[in-house]
């Protein structure tokens, strides 16, 4: 049986100790498209080590920077074909600004396994602390495994973030590069879905698609730049549901609303007028 929720739920994965350098941070920012305006002082905060600051979504790649093989969806009670898997949701909460260089310990557990009938949703939570025990960030993500439902588990509930019924406070267009996925994969996600046309077709896509976490990071940067004066230290958390794919070279259009909870946003792919991110909320300190 590919999924056994009784074994999976609550299982703790191997503790991971990892480190990162300013060069890793610079690579991540460049993989998100930072530096398109190389003389802009705000862009230099992402691309020049003199006043380097770390976009909080770096938390999604920090532990995987030295991974050079495609990921395997193999956890206690879970064995799933990688071609069946797409990212479902992602949330990062930073407990303090991420340092430009550091060493940390990550502890991950499987929070839930949901049965959506035709698919399963696997929810993980990772807590990261510095080597002296100080909390750095908490990340929560889910993956959507097509064809793996029907095992009789709970369907769970969805956390909705409904934008106000009015015009957005800002509309931000962010171009992606045709080679965006080729750059981003150097941050540790070597899933062939994002580079291999044959593998992409076997997974049900006409062509390789952009990493969901690349889109997630690009949107976080765009909103931080437009709404928080490019001050990444003001970001407290960012959560989103992946509502659709992005093809490298497409333009992301993000609509942002100021709310009491934070900055609610939606993102679409302009060329196809297709949803990309939904139920998204960025909070500030």
From TrEMBL:
Domain MaoC-like: 163-270
All copies of domain Peroxisomal multifunctional enzyme type 2-like N-terminal, residue ranges: 18-147
Positions of the UniProt region annotated as Disordered: 151-170
InterPro entries in the cross-refs: HotDog_dom_sf (IPR029069), MaoC-like_dom (IPR002539), MFE-2_N (IPR054357)
A Pfam family of this chain: MaoC_dehydratas
Similarity annotation: Belongs to the enoyl-CoA hydratase/isomerase family.
Protein name in UniProt: MaoC/PaaZ C-terminal domain-containing protein
Species of origin: Amycolatopsis tucumanensis
């Amino acid at each position: 049986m590919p999924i056994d929720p009784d074994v999976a739920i609550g299982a703790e994965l191997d503790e991971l100790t990892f480190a990162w350098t300013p060069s890793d941070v610079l690579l991540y920012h460049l993989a998100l498209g930072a530096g398109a305006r190389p003389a802009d002082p705000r862009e230099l905060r992402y691309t020049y080590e003199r006043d380097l600051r770390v976009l909080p979504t770096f938390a999604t790649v920090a532990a995987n920077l030295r991974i050079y093989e495609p990921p395997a969806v193999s956890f206690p009670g879970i064995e799933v074909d990688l071609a069946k898997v797409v990212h479902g949701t992602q949330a990062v909460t930073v407990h303090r600004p991420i340092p430009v260089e550091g060493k940390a310990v990550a502890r991950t557990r499987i929070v839930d396994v949901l049965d959506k009938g035709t698919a399963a949703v696997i929810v993980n939570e990772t807590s990261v602390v510095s080597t002296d025990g100080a909390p750095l960030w908490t990340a929560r993500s889910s993956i959507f495994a097509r064809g793996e439902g029907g095992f009789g588990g709970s369907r769970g509930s969805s956390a909705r973030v409904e934008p106000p019924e009015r015009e957005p406070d800002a509309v931000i267009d962010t171009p992606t590069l045709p080679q965006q996925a080729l750059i981003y994969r150097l941050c540790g996600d070597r899933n062939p879905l994002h580079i291999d046309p044959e593998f992409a077709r076997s997974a049900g896509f006409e062509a390789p698609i952009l990493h969901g976490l690349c889109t997630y990071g690009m949107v976080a940067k765009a909103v931080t730049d437009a709404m928080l004066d490019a001050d990444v230290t003001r970001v407290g958390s960012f959560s989103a549901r992946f509502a659709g794919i992005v093809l490298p070279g497409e333009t992301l259009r993000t609509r942002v609303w100021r709310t009491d909870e934070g900055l609610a946003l939606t993102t679409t792919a302009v060329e196809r007028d297709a949803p990309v991110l939904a139920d998204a909320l960025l909070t500030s300190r």
